[in-house]
Amino acid sequence: MDKVYPSVDEAVMDVFDGATVAFGGFFSAGRPLELTMALARRGVKNLTIVVQQVGVGNEEILELVANGQVKKAICNYPFPRSAQKGAAHPFEQAVRRGEIELEVYPMGTFAEKLRCAGAGIPAFYTPTGVGTVVAEGKEVRVFNGVEALLETALPVDFAFVHAWKGDSEGNLIYRYTASNYNNVMAMAGKVTIAEVENLYRAGELDGNCVHTPGIFVKRVVKVDRPPLWQGTV
Amino acid sequence: MPDVPPLEREMIALRIANMLEDGSYVNLGIGIPTLVSNWIEGRDIILQSEIGMLKCGALADEEMIDQDRINASCQFVCELPGSSYFPIETSFAMIRGGRMDVAVLGALQVSARGDLAGWNNPSRGLGKVGNIGGSMDLAVGAKKLIVAMEHFTNTGEAKILEECTYPLTAKACVDVIVTNYAVIEVTPRGLVLKEAVPGLTPEDVQKMTAAPLIVADDFREMEL
Asked: Which of A184, B69, B83, B223 would bridge B79 by S-S if both were Cys, CB 3.0 to 4.6 A apart?
């Protein structure tokens, strides 16, 4: 099975208008920089983006915002930390103007929504968020004396992930904390596209060390190692 | 209020470091909590960073920077012998699964029952959305939650209140509050004043606090 695509532009060429797209990465680490830039070039609109934070460490997401490609964002830590930086930030401004709809989830809930989507589980209960705005409109039940609220899985049409190493059959290996959301988003994607810094033929990676098995990955494309990001959040 | 100097942020962190037991797994939030890491060198305390790292080391200096090794505040960090890395779903299985012995978080407000409000300052004007991060999971999942914060807001308002007025992180989750003036425990009886900085009486701390305090039988001056 050969899943290798010659370029990021070809790898994203069927991302459609109105698609839900997940982006791996946590601030700068492990973000799919090249695939995101290719999506900006492709120009499809009305996207729902699923991403930890928008344009802080992953500034390339702001290209999608600037192009008017984003209809909705589903995030955990959407804004710059400081109110002052946020006021000047294009994504925060777009949310304030009502141009982009925003949903925010606690980090563990966000991760679990993706994990469930990948594992065929439609919904789950969690105590996280009970008694907060996160619980508004959601069913709450008591299990073993603990209140827990109902959250649903978050399937995505496309997942863009970044790996340190990958082989032609889609097996992926991440490096240090650049792993973060990449595995769970790869699982959640109907079509998962992996950009990899180092591309190998099947058999060249040690199967004992694979983090994401190739069954979760539809396409693999070789990219350069991203440049060092040294901003502050 | 008597003219008593408040603790520096680093000293709040030191007081908390002295509360941590050897052999514990600890997650430190953004702000004052992060400073706790400066006071535990050589101790048998393992720091978790929710991005996906156990045995998170010190901040990396220029030559130790690796762009793939950051903490949950996007700072470059060093590894230690025995450090490990894992994906976010595993990281939150640790947090939600009750494996964190202690979480130390900052706060905007804490209520008399131990409700925590820390993720959304209404003055920013973003309504019901904001940067939740891992705070709600940590507040619910950690075995013990220590809040590290200044006693007053920048504009001099009380942060310890009968009821929080800001959006909650979690209800009834805080175990101990360490401020720049006092150490206060949250108990089923209410808030118990355990320690105050030298020069402050329990009556002084009560005047500075917008929720009723019970003075501990073993109330004492804070020692660092």
From this structure: B83
pLDDT computed for residue A233 by the predictor: 85
Cβ-Cβ contacts under 8 Å for A70 (sequence gap 6 or more): A47, A48, A49, A64, A94, A100
Q: Which sequence spans correspond to the domains of chain B?
A: 9-46+88-221
The strand ranges marked E within A7-155 are: 20-23, 47-50, 70-75, 101-104, 123-126, 140-143, 146-152
Q: Are A30 and B171 within 8 A, CB to CB?
A: no
Q: Which residue of A has its CA nearest to B70?
A: A177
Q: B203 catalytic, yes or no?
A: no
Active-site choice (B21, B50, B79, B150): B50
pLDDT at B12: 98
pLDDT digits (tens, 9 = 90+) for A111-149: 999 999 999 999 999 999 999 999 999 999 999 999 999
Q: Which residue from A76, A176, A231 is facing B133, i.e. has the nearest CB? A: A76
CATH architecture, domain defined by B9-46+88-221: 3-Layer(aba) Sandwich (3.40)
Torsion of CA B110, B111, B117, B121, to 10 degrees: -90
**Chain A nearest CA to B207, separation (Å):** 29
CATH number given to A8-222: 3.40.1080.10
| A-chain residues near B49 (CB < 8 A) | 177
SS3 label, residue A18:
coil
